[in-house]
Amino acid sequence: MLHCRNLNTPSPLLKFGAGVNSLTSLVFKNSHNSLGFYSENHDRVLKSSCLIDLTRSQPLVGGGHCDRREESSISSSGEKMSVRCNTGSHSHNRISIEKEDGSGKTTTTKGSGKIKGNVVLMKKNVLDFNDFNASFLDRVHELFGQRVSLQLVSAVNGDPGNGMRGKLGKEAYLEDWITTISPLTAGDSAFDVNFDWDEKIGVPGAFIIQNYHHSEFYLKTLTLDNVPGHGRIHFVCNSWVYPSDKYHSPRIFFANKTYLPSETPLSLRKYREEELANLRGNGTGERQEWDRIYDYDYYNDLGNPDKGAKYARPVLGGSPQYPYPRRGRTGRKRTDTDRNTETRLNLALSLNIYAPRDERFGHLKLADFLAYALKSIGQFLKPEIEDLFNSTPNEFDSIDDVFKLYEGGVDVPEGLLKSVRDNIPAEMLKEIFRTDGERFLKFPVPQVIKENKTAWDTDEEFAREMLAGINPVMIHRLQEFPPRSKLDPKVYGDHTSKITKNYIEHNLDGLSVDEAIRNNKVFILDHHDMLIPFLRRINATNTKIYATRTIIFLQKDGTLKPLAIELSLPHPGGDHFGCISKVYTPADKGVDGSLWQLAKAYVNVNDSGYHQLISHWLKTHAAIEPFVIATNRQLSVVHPINKLLHPHFRDTMNLNAVARQILINAGGALEATVFPGRYCMEMTSASYKEWTFPGQALPVDLIKRGVAVEDENSPHGLRLLIDDYPFAVDGLEIWSAIKTWVKDYCSLYYKTDKMVQEDYELQSWWKELREEGHGDKKDEPWWPEMQTREDLIETCTIIIWIASALHAAINFGQYPYGGFPPNRPSMSRRFIPEEDTPEYNELKTDPEKALLKTITGQLLSVLGISLVEILSRHSSDEVYLGERDTPEWTTDKEAEKAFEKFGNKLREIELKIEKMNKDQKLKNRVGPVKMPYTLLYPSSEGGLTGKGIPNSVSI
Ligand SMILES: [Fe+2]
């Protein structure tokens, strides 16, 4: 064996083993001045063929450099042999051997040798929870011995016999298992692989891998150290490789180069197209675990009509009545009862629901754990437990009683405990519900009551959360008074607000209502129109809820003050009679104070439902999925826009698939904990009718809501009408940083608009996204046409914004704000008590109890808190905005530089946020609850931090 790693290391004497033709041993000597091969005794003729054999079987490894042309020659027995190391770095293998036969005739053989590669993979199936602690190492050996083969694919030389696809090298196999390489993450293994190389291969641009082993492994990277004439080539793979018989064609991976389709080397083009075709599949059949196919389908898998009408749900998507973004297709068979509905997986198999293999949580331990946690929560939703929830008489008696949730003192009925114990493994119980199975749980103290236990209940905090809470995307500026409805009067009658000037005029710092509106001081949180069409049906269930409107005044100190709340119900005589409304105004004492508190609770119930279903599920999780699918189907992994967007799609399809199993399905966790119950998803479909893609851009959204106006002289080109609007202030900083990064990056690859127009992958991507992914919106006039660089930049900025910052702002405050149910109740179970009833008397004598009897009950609060706690956690290996999971995501230095600039900008923004949060003039940033606004603070550590912007919708 050759033991050398670097041929330029000055002159160690190296020995080859015996057995190569006539050589018994060979001394290789190297220095900057000489390079030569000598036979040990110098008395034998060295045959060139012998040397070539030698170099083939004994790789010349290492990453050294030959700094100059070096040449040495030896003579022996009248024959002269010259060994040359050609110019350039990493060129040890470009060996020319000239042999003179003594008559002056010279023969030359050149251009062959070995390329050493290093493969990093993970064999362990981390999805197997029971295997978390199992030893990986004892199974590594299974990959030895010609079980895994790799072949290089030439990026420069096409094979005329194979449609000019790049020439293939000889198969090479995983060899020594390297135990010393670092840094390796736990569970990873590294292997040597030595490729034969000759000039026909030239520079490899891809490799093909075949797994002849019986189980899959997760291939992370291949690195070629010393490609002749090129140097190091790195392949970022991050993909599960199943046994070869699972695939129609061998798996191919491309080097981390970036090419527009038209600039792809000819020899890689067909491979590029074929790989995309593989990922698109043929649209038929049930998807299997190992499949990598990205395809579209309707949301036709939420209901289970075979189980009874109670579990039937409309198909969302594909009809004008129920438009919806598409989900990833799974292809399971249809139900017997309704041929348009797909059968569901058994609850116990929830984590097996199909998502393209590399979209699954293979790389994450904690996310796997979270998925298990979600599944465990799903166990709560079995019918027998469901009944228990509905029938349990347990109530919180007082707000102090609620605090016991964080102190570990809430009792639960034995029936529920038994069911929980039977269904959830003990270690999960401990981790998720913090219980030993006897007394139920102890939750972490939510931030909103950490510093001050009572400030959540103030009017100022109630209004502040419209600017800095978890649903800061709903508040509008009021531009006409009284507020009007957009509901069709022919169907719904007159829904103009009943809030008259008399209710509010005394509270406007001396301004008249008209003046206050003209001065941009009046705002509204309006949940009326969204709810009215559903209210009769919702109120026929256990839920009892109003449609609400809240009028808010912007005070001189920059804080908001609620002025009036209108609670409306459909007219009992029929929709065309309009609605019945009651108006409540602020009061802090007596029964009026209690009524005002209840009115605020109904607003919060409306808002928390809107938040969970529409701001969160529909506008981030569901809206992004079609982009994930279209990108994987139409943009090659070597396409610059794929490289730009890919980090922002991490885990989304898998998480959404699990959500369809246990969160948003009929009888799932959302229906159980969010007030519209079985109408939850139908309501999101109604809201999608109003969804526009360009409207998701933060500046467009702010202007549309009237909370900002265009202003060339302001930073980011617009001026906020509520200066201290933490979500908007921080959001605009992040939005602009993303946009600058996207512009810098796209400009590297698209020098002209024509290049955008002529990029056929890009055009197919955009066409498919509009016509398939968001197919129910395909005829909308507002889609960017993707004809200019500006179209491309705005589009990518919106996608990244939704997946990263918008989702973070909406998602990670769920526990900090909603972990204390009285602050963000998600259900209401009764209406405001009528006068002269026992309930009304209780409102007078024990308003806390009356409030707690109205909002979410105790057991569902526990379920809801468990759920939002899980959804608010960062996994320990989360990748945040401005980070990539590998530094080698590109080889383009300019792209790297632009990305670094983006990271620096985000760090600057963090400092700004810290500074603003300490500025006492900016009262909305901390509020009476003393909770600094950090939801758009880019970085975070793992866990329940209330800050940090992950790249993707990953939880
Ligand atoms: Fe989320």
From TrEMBL:
Protein localization: Cytoplasm
Protein family according to the UniProt entry: Belongs to the lipoxygenase family.
Function: Plant lipoxygenase may be involved in a number of diverse aspects of plant physiology including growth and development, pest resistance, and senescence or responses to wounding.
Keywords assigned by UniProt, alphabetized: Cytoplasm, Dioxygenase, Fatty acid biosynthesis, Fatty acid metabolism, Iron, Lipid biosynthesis, Lipid metabolism, Metal-binding, Oxidoreductase, Oxylipin biosynthesis
Single GO molecular function: oxidoreductase activity, acting on single donors with incorporation of molecular oxygen, incorporation of two atoms of oxygen
A Pfam family hit: Lipoxygenase
All copies of domain PLAT, residue ranges: 115-255
Region listing for Disordered, in residue ranges: 62-111, 320-339
Enzyme Commission no: 1.13.11.-
SMART domains: LH2
Any one GO BP annotation for this protein: oxylipin biosynthetic process
Protein name: Lipoxygenase
A GO term from the CC aspect: cytoplasm
Assembly information from the UniProt record: Monomer.
Pathway: Lipid metabolism; oxylipin biosynthesis
Gene3D superfamilies, per the entry: 3.10.450.60, Lipoxygenase-1, Domain 2 (4.10.375.10), Lipoxygenase-1, Domain 3 (4.10.372.10), Lipoxygenase-1, Domain 5 (1.20.245.10), PLAT/LH2 domain (2.60.60.20)
Signal peptide: none
